[in-house]
Write a structure and sequence with these properties.
Length: about 250
């Protein structure tokens, strides 16, 4: 008998939720996030460079990445990792251009973590210490490696603790959008089951809240909106030392 023809793969729906908060210590929110459901795109950025510079830098990053991915069009679906890398490098140019044009913003920069969903794959691109996680069956898995002094120190000194680094050194990033003329972007491809939750966030969450607690809060929530609120509340309850931003997505 002839084999039965297979139809096209079922298009999966992207559920998303996001929340940001200034925290209990900072006077302004230098985080930004963007969700473009029609593109399957989720972005989180954490600005650096003082009150004005940080806000401007993170906003430029989010706007630039979405604009570039949208302009790339069909190629973004055909080569998602390349598209994200190109978009983030374009954001790097945009941040530097604004910083050079406006003396008050000179030296500004931003982290970025961006997810582009294509079919059942989450394409993850990042620079800096904002993170991406996958929560599956109650277990949390970190998908990114921080580009930070702490992370590099621990990689070179396996028996050491991040407590060995004191003061501002614990918060220094080794890679950021706008910091240099060229930017290396890390990319990864992550398979997504229908119940998987992909979380992207700034260090305002991961600083005061440990990974295990983050996984428990996401797994225990009845919706992505509930999970987002629970995560931000946990960061605030832990002192809210920084701006905190979370964005969650699930392919159903």
């Amino acid at each position: 008998m002839p084999s039965e023809a297979k139809g096209p793969p079922t298009r999966r729906h992207l559920e998303t939720a996001a929340l940001t908060d200034v925290g209990r210590v900072r006077e302004s929110n230098e985080d930004s996030y963007g969700i473009a459901s029609d593109l399957g795109l989720v972005i989180v950025a954490d600005g650096m460079g003082g009150h004005a510079g940080g806000e401007v830098a993170s906003a430029i990053v989010v706007e630039s990445v979405e604009r570039e991915v949208r302009a790339i069009g069909a190629f973004a679906k055909a080569a998602p990792s390349l598209a994200l890398t190109a978009a983030i490098r374009a954001a790097n140019d945009a941040v530097r251009e604004q910083g050079n044009a406006r003396p008050a913003l000179r030296g500004m920069g931003s982290t970025v973590v961006a997810i582009l969903f294509v079919d059942a794959i989450a394409h993850v691109a990042h620079a800096g210490d904002s993170r991406a996680y996958r929560v599956r069956n109650g277990e949390i898995e970190r998908l990114t490696r921080d580009h930070s002094l702490v992370e590099e120190y621990l990689a070179e000194n396996p028996d050491a603790s991040e407590d060995d680094l004191e003061g501002s050194y614990r918060h220094l990033v080794t890679r950021a959008v706008g910091a240099a003329p060229s930017l290396e972007v890390d990319v990864a491809e992550i398979e997504c089951d229908p119940e998987d939750v992909i979380l992207v966030c700034t260090d305002g969450l991961t600083g005061p809240v440990d990974d295990e607690t983050i996984g428990e809060l996401v797994s225990g929530a009845k919706s992505l909106e509930e999970a987002a609120k629970a995560l931000v509340d946990a960061a605030i309850d832990a002192g809210g030392p920084d701006n905190v931003t979370v964005a969650l997505a699930r392919l159903r």
